[in-house]
Amino acid sequence: MVAEGLVTRFHGGFCYVMVNGVVKACLPRGRLAAGGLLVGDRVKVRVARECVVEEVLPRRTELLRPPVANVELAVLVFSLRDPEPNFKLLDRLLVASRAAAIEAVICFNKLDLMEGAFPEELNVYHAVGYQVLLTSALTGEGVAGLRAVLTGKISVFAGPSGSGKSSLLNAIEPSLHLKTGEISRKTRRGRHTTRLVELLPLPGGGFVADTPGFAQLDLPDIPAARLASSFPEIAAAGVECRFNDCLHLREPDCAVQRAVAEGVVAPFRYRHYVNFLQEIRDRERRSWS
Ligand code: GDP
Ligand code: ZN
Questions:
Q1: Ligand 1 within 6 A of 183 CB?
Q2: Whose CA is nearest to atom 26 of ligand 1?
Q3: Which of 139, 225, 235, 265 satisfies CB 3.0 to 4.6 Å to 259 for a cystine?
Q4: Does the beta carbon of 257 lie inside 6 Å of ligand 1?
């Protein structure tokens, strides 16, 4: 019998595949044994006394760090306090998600530590069109909303260590028994991470990687002209620029510079856009010389 399944981990030469809700130890066949598979791959398995992975189905997305196929959602986790959110890092992760064609939601955690007004930046992300979740892994507030977002999808958590990724996963599914910092620590194992990424099945359906996404914080290798597509409000304003190839720096009749001056585009978002553009151009220059 041949059944379809999803690769959840590799261990001891076996590839573990979830088939109809049951994890089976399988042997990958031929070239698939030699690194041709990633966790997250949808595969065809010949189910017998010895299960064999016979075929891998086309990937929808392919993340390299950590190596996971078919990730649909990145949950970008930042704490509201201890430490305070780094919005430049958040924007970097939004660019990385977009380049990988992975939908992003933003989760601000440690809601219980929040006193007084929320940072103005939170409204900006919401207004720009991102889904913004507020959670406390400690009190459980907002956790049901996060669980709902993850259901049925393959997700990765990303964000600085200490923001509460491991704690949130435990709050979502206590049987995972992750130690605090466990998710963050995984990346630091460097090149061995490949063998170790595991997809944890969620009870309501769906999977989440036990290693944070976008471990490499270099900007993705995209052309300068494509950067604005990761800033929806800048892309929208840019439609009105005089030049089609306007990069919104110092060009005349630039609608984005006007939108920043008028407060329609938040200055901090524009600043990050300009910083990232510079980074991309520096890299392009280096690769030519
Ligand atoms: P990770 O490195 O992103 O996996 O973060 P951890 O889950 O290890 O959390 C880092 C620290 O923050 C730990 O000491 C947690 O107990 C604490 N923490 C996590 N979530 C919350 C929260 O919602 N509220 C509070 N007050 N502390 C939290
Ligand atoms: Zn412009």
A1: yes
A2: 110
A3: 265
A4: no
